[in-house]
């Protein structure tokens, strides 16, 4: 009985400390992915990470002035492919482009446009963003923006 | 053994301290800060060219080499969810000319050999300097000298 009271008091103190300053929020889990896949909108695999240390499948190419629709998919730790949409609305796909003026990534709900702007040989890195932090960051993948 | 009444008193004290506590030092009332979330760029005919969405943009301006591109800049106080890529509702748009003069906008083009921008806090003119080229432009909203909001860099092309 004494221990039950002590436990209750500790609980009360913890709740009191947490009250007001740290309101309870609903937190969605991290994405828990092992690999990332880049597909075109027909489902063809363009590139895939290997142990998220390197890429297989080569580079991505897009003509300057043109746009390439890409689907970003993931593998879980059992090797099952899944989409971000299946995990809720707190995730988004971001893309770092080394030469920022050469191309831009415009994400939409099930796919995104990789738009070529100026001829360049550069690199991209994909991030799976979870509210305010990245859950998954790929290695750099070569990107070629070709002249038309 | 601790009695139930002592536990109840302790609980009340803890909650009052957590919720009602705070410094007794009087603080000056803070000036309300405008919470800008997104930017919308339109042409002079009010057609939407681009709008920001958190870390990225939807759409991009194309600057004709011959005539340049006149744009108006709107701001939105709303922000959509990460997976909702619709444009900010027009009812949330505001323009800088509805705000006091302490609010200003710095528009910076990364490569001014591609294009230049001249204008004020309501918008301005992109002038192409080099055909078939591309650069990025950033919009920084300031209140006095303090940065209030910075949109992600916006890619554009000159044709």
Q: Count of DSSP E strands of chain A?
A: 12
The CATH first-level class of chain B comes to: Mainly Beta
Oligomer: heterodimer
- Whole-number average pLDDT of chain B? 86
Report the span from N to C terminus of chain B. Answer: 83 Å
Binned, the helix content of chain A reads 10-25%
Number of domains of chain A: 1
Indicate the low-confidence ranges of chain A by residue numbers.
none
Shape of chain B: elongated
DSSP summary: helix tally of chain A: 1
Arithmetic mean pLDDT of chain A: 88
Name the largest protein-protein interface in this structure.
A-B, 38 and 32 residues
Strand and helix order of chain B: HEEEEEEEEEEEE
CATH topology assignment of chain B: Immunoglobulin-like
User: What characterizes the major β-sheet of chain A?
Assistant: 7 strands, antiparallel
Write a structural description:
The complex is a heterodimer of chains A (148) and B (159). Chain A is mainly β and 148 residues long. Chain A has a single domain, classed as Sandwich (Immunoglobulin-like), CATH 2.60.40.1080. Helix content of chain A is 11%, strand content 47%. Chain A has one helix and twelve strands. In chain A, the strands form two sheets. In chain A, strands 1, 2, 3, 5, 6, 8 and 9 form a seven-stranded antiparallel beta sheet that branches. Chain B has a single domain, classed as Immunoglobulin-like (Sandwich). Chain B is built from one helix and twelve strands. With 159 residues, chain B is mostly beta strands. In chain B, strand 1 and strand 2 form a beta hairpin. In chain B, strands 1, 2, 3, 5, 6, 8 and 9 form a seven-stranded antiparallel beta sheet that branches. In chain B, strands 4, 7, 10, 11 and 12 form a five-stranded mixed beta sheet that branches. Chain B is elongated, with a radius of gyration of 23 Å. The mean pLDDT of chain B is 86. Chains A and B meet through helix 1, strand 7 and strand 8 of A and helix 1, strand 3 and strand 10 of B.
């Amino acid at each position: 009985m004494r221990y039950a009271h002590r436990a209750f008091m500790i609980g009360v103190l913890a709740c009191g400390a947490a009250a007001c300053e740290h309101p309870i929020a609903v937190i969605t889990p991290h994405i828990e992915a092992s690999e990332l896949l880049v597909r075109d909108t027909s489902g063809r695999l363009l590139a895939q990470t290997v142990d998220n240390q390197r890429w297989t499948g080569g580079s991505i190419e897009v003509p300057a002035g043109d746009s390439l629709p890409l689907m970003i998919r993931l593998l879980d730790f059992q090797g099952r492919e899944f989409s971000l949409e299946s995990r809720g609305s707190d995730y988004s796909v971001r893309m770092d482009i080394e030469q920022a003026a050469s191309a831009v990534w415009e994400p939409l709900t099930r796919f995104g446009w990789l738009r070529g702007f100026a001829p360049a040989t550069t690199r991209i890195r994909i991030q799976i963003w979870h509210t305010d932090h990245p859950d998954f960051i790929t290695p750099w993948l070569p990107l070629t923006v070709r002249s038309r | 053994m601790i009695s139930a009444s002592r536990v109840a008193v302790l609980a009340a004290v803890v909650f009052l301290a957590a919720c009602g506590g705070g410094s007794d030092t009087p603080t000056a009332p803070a000036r309300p800060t405008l919470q800008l979330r997104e930017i919308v760029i339109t042409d002079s005919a009010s057609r939407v060219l681009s709008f920001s969405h958190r870390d990225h943009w939807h759409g991009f301006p194309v600057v004709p080499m011959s005539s340049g591109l006149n744009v108006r800049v709107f701001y939105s106080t709303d922000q959509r969810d990460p997976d909702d890529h619709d444009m900010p509702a027009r009812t949330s748009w505001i323009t800088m000319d509805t705000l006091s003069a302490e609010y200003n906008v710095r528009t910076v083009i990364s490569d001014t050999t591609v294009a230049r921008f001249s204008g004020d806090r309501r918008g301005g003119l992109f002038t192409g300097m080099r055909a078939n080229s591309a650069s990025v432009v950033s919009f920084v909203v300031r209140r006095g000298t303090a940065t209030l909001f910075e949109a992600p860099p916006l890619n554009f092309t000159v044709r």
